[in-house]
Task: structure prediction
Amino acid sequence: MELVSGLALAGVALFILGFIWAGFNPIERYLSPLRRFPGPAPLPFLGNLVSVATRDLTAYLADCRQAYGGIWLGNQPWVCVADPDLIRRVAYRVLSRPFSHTDSIHLLAGEQWEVDCNTLVFLKNGPTWRLARRAFESSIIHPQSLAGHLPAVWRCVRRYTPRLERHAATGEPLDLSSDLADLTLAVVGEAAYGVDFRTTDEQQDGGRPADPSAPGPALVAAVRECFDCLDVNKTTMYGPLKMIWPGLTPLWRWMAKHLPDAAQTRHMRVADVSRQLMAQWQAAKAKTAAAADTAGATAASGAGAEAGAGVGVGAGAQAKPGGGGAVQAFVEVGGGISSSSFMASLLEGRRGAAKEEERLTDLQIVAQCLTFLLAGFETTAATISFTAFCLATHPEAQARLLAEVDEHFARQAAAEQQQQGQQQREGDDALPELPYLDAVLKESMRLYPAGSALIRKSPQPLDLGRDGLVIPGNTFVCLATHAVMHDPAIWPEPEAFRPERFLPEGSSSLGPMVGGAAASAPAGGGADAAAAAWVPFGMGPRMCVGSKFATMVSKAVLLQIYRRFTFELHPKQVLPLRTRTALTHAPRDGIWVVVKAR
Result:
């Protein structure tokens, strides 16, 4: 009996010692090559999580930029790189990212984890990543396909402007960052899926709010919950547990799957949207095929069958909200899916693939559409909101932009008058050249990039070529691009909003970019380092695949909004502006404005 008690006591003692040893992690802290990277003193178990949780991660990395080279998130060391030359070298040499966003911050389980791991953002290099990348390139990178999405942007903006008219008439304050999310989701809905998510229904029924149970508003809520849960301060409880005891990840993932907490459950909702759409389209495909078989080989049914087989939808797929089914159907744009939509491109590419390995699976299609949705939703809304904030706090810059916008539309009106009533709108298939608008947008993205850092994970040791520093393999590498774009050694007056930095008149005295191109190098760097000084979309082979699409949408929205409205900050706006970092870098307290009609 005494022997059993002694063994039990020894077992408990060993467990406690192992628990403490795992939380303190002395070997990696003091005996690995990471000891050569200076960093703020980490707490046992928690590392620097307390400092990160009490502040914004982007701001914390900026403060650590000069004094340190690494931080600890729990028991996971991160090496932070804030030198533009090193950022460029790492971005091009290390193509791998964390296997999933859940590897670094969140923790998903089951099918949600599989979807997350198959998104383009987190796919490992290889045939599947190249296949997914090619799908994006065919839909939103090539100029012709990119221009095909512009009419949808104009339509969404025209449906959105009555909301601004109402606020301008009443004078009630507007949280622009939250409100613009409805607009950007409408744009993404048409561009990615070819459907109307009905996020602007309040304009269609006399200003009454849209039905929150309709798919569009429900999707808005789901996506916002997803972004909210990805904030390190609001993540699932299993996230910190994984950071503190990464060796027990299988246990935490099992618990997350079988015992999900509130954050875990909320995060799971957003991927259901793509599955709902695919199920609706598959039903439409079967219905169209059955109708074709019944009606015979007529020209009309043949065309419908071809559309159903190629894209998975047809005019018959349109369903009225509230009609019959338990879940309201998404309304298709123009009664059918646009051939330029991202989903149509994926499905058509799968049908035309000659080899099985060249075809995306249903799970991969869901994952890529989720990538499009999440990457194009809040990022674009945040970029436009930050730009509006900069203009509202700098009246001279706003006045110069308004003059450029007015001049453009005056030229357009004169051209239409010369065409004797031909009403083709300029910009339906191309954006006008507006240098100051370009400069305003670039400077806003320098100050407040939607993506404030790039995360890499090198499978092999990485020699930085500086002072013998070598990053061990399988270590997280954080490329602090936000810190570089706020470095006073590179950008004079880095916290000032100066659009002239990106105009020829700005000269190199305002930074390394002249007219939008790298002109001079930071101290100690070359031209390549200067190019890495402005990287709101990242750089290298893993550069944001939607950068051109996001820029096009942002410019189009700003052009049309500032044609008719301006914004002033409301007293509810918290100053100085605070931000929060989750999947994107966005305003923490919103952007509260008063809308002024011009």
